[in-house]
Design goal:
mainly alpha; 3-stranded mixed β-sheet; 7 helices; 3 strands; elongated; membrane; transmembrane helix; Zn-dependent protease; Zn_peptidase_2; transmembrane
Amino acid sequence: MSILIYFAILILVPIWAQMRVKSAFKKYSQVPSSSRMRGAEVARKILDDNGLYHVGVEETRGVLSDHYDPRSKTVRLSSDNYHGHSVAAAAIASHEVGHAIQDQEDYSFLRFRHALVPVANLGSNFSWIFILIGIFAQMSNMLLLGIIFMAAGVVFQLVTLPVEFNASNRAMEQVVSAGIIRNDEERETKKVLDAAALTYVAAAAVAVMELVRLVLIYTGMNNDD
């Protein structure tokens, strides 16, 4: 029974976090910002205010597919946020610009996360192969190898948290100081940013829980030996 509850938590927590961010986005995408600036204009203004004239702003496909690409130095906004002039569009556009500012300032956690990308990708691709072989074949060494690979991905998830929270803090500072939102809109803007951050918190929590479970399985396997 307890194992069913555990897996239910693993499944439901990320779903709940995604529902929260979609709900917040849907609600505040219907609330126009006082400046009436489109997301693309918000991003461009904040970039220019910080001297990042070389960073581009582009429209990208998908819903909530917004991101900053450090390789091409481009802020990419989903269509709703690129063209929208809502509080949600301003919040998300400024958040992605926050990552561009981090990149410009050589923010340590962002650099660390970039360095972890190849290792995390390797871990996500191969960890479960070794884990499943280790569990079903009762080979503790294979399980340990899988745990090590998975741990790299967990570290990546944990390092992502300060990167995202810092970008959101920068976003709030920028939209307020630039006059993009009024003081009475700060609460709504923060709700959008907090909901988005919750998805990263949920992902990190689930990753840590699963890693701990596998470590306990490995310990039990060795104790049996």
